[in-house]
Structure prediction request, 468 residues.
Amino acid sequence: MKYVDEFRNAELIKRTAEEIRRLADPDRRYRIMEICGGHTHAIFRFGLHQLLPKNIDLVHGPGCPVCVLPSARVDEGLEIARGNDLIFTAFGDMMRVPGSHGSPLEAKARGAEVRMVYSPLDALKLAQDNPDRRVMFFAIGFETTTPSTALTILRARERGVSNFLVHCNHIMVPPPIRAILDMPDMTLDAFIGPGHVSTVIGCEPYRFIAEAYGKPVVVSGFEPTDLMQSIAMILRQFRDGRCEVENQYARALPWDGNPAARRAMETVFEPRESFEWRGLGFIPGSGYRIREEFAAFDAEAVCEAPGVTTLPSDPRARCGDVLKGALKPSECELFGTECTPETPVGALMVSSEGACAAQFKYAHVTISA
Amino acid sequence: MCLAIPGQIRELLPDDEMAVVDVMGVRRKISMQMLVDEPATEGDWVLIHVGFAMSKISDEDAREQLRVLEAMGDDADAQAEARGYAFGHAEDESGGPAS
Ligand code: SF4
Prediction:
């Protein structure tokens, strides 16, 4: 049992929890989606949901980049690398993400040349150090990470590196939120916006959620106090009949984000017509591809992957319903039995930012005020 | 990869748009290309993501972010990530990872 007093600002958390209880109208339910996987991790890690009144549900959103990457992209990336004799590089989180023929780590065990990197610049350096090989960076991530890949491609061009390729799987936060809001069985009332993504895109891109869909958004920091305060700010909007985008994280997050990072991103990338999300299907305008001007660095433009096939996923896996907030992780029949962090069937079990892994890992965390 | 790691700038390397930062005792080179609009100076704290400084933060916020990493049990991962940045090594005068 963990007590609130162990936290820094324990007093503030208690006071905010009381304020939330006062603000919550007992005659209704509140379903609040935290978009960011980092928030999901923090909520489970600290057991914050247990401090909330019963009529407030936290729903875990699609903001974990490895969790939403579909098998087909993993399959294609690995096949491009295999068929063209490339060194496959990716972040550590990516290594255990299941494709339909296994994860990058399993491909490595079968003899593929797969290396983990901590930065796209590491992949570029690997290319510079191995001029007789071609190195592909399997790029994943939301707008937090996309500018780093863009700047790495710009650097590669500047330095005339011709053996560096990127397989681009970068995705955006706002389009899946719109897709979820458009679902016929949608029951969400409000959103906790992602702090780090917003340091790049700022708070403006969430305006449609408040204005077109009538759902409050509060962009939040990552401390327990931040998340509790963001929930209180959402409830205050309901109490006052307001519906706005608010910035709880203003101490670190300028409203306009980081224009320099966006410029780099827009120089190198453009939106795809459509991109597939694990569990959510194809969503229009939700992914980035490399602009034609930079085609020499685009693995999809330069390399063929004729042999790539994607197998259907296990029909018992309910990742899609969990991602949409329609099902709790433990309600999936594979949860904790066939699907565990060591043997993930679905990608929500791979990273502690995925709802299934977070719930599995922190099931023992209980908290009381 | 979703970590945002606070680091303090020790030395600016403007020719390369890089800087040497101190991340929980680990010294590494990171890229400063995202901060062209709000140039940082030595002693400033920045939030680092996959080898790039994303934003400048106050001393107080840096301390707070470090506490969050620790409380989340992510501090070892953050240190491993910073230690893992390999792109700066070849130019390290010390000839290897300084920590
Ligand atoms: S338990 Fe596994 S298969 Fe079931 S929803 Fe979660 S990640 Fe998907």
User: Anything to note?
Assistant: Helices of chain B lie at 59-71, 75-84. Chain B has two helices and five strands. The two ends of chain B are 21 Å apart (CA to CA).
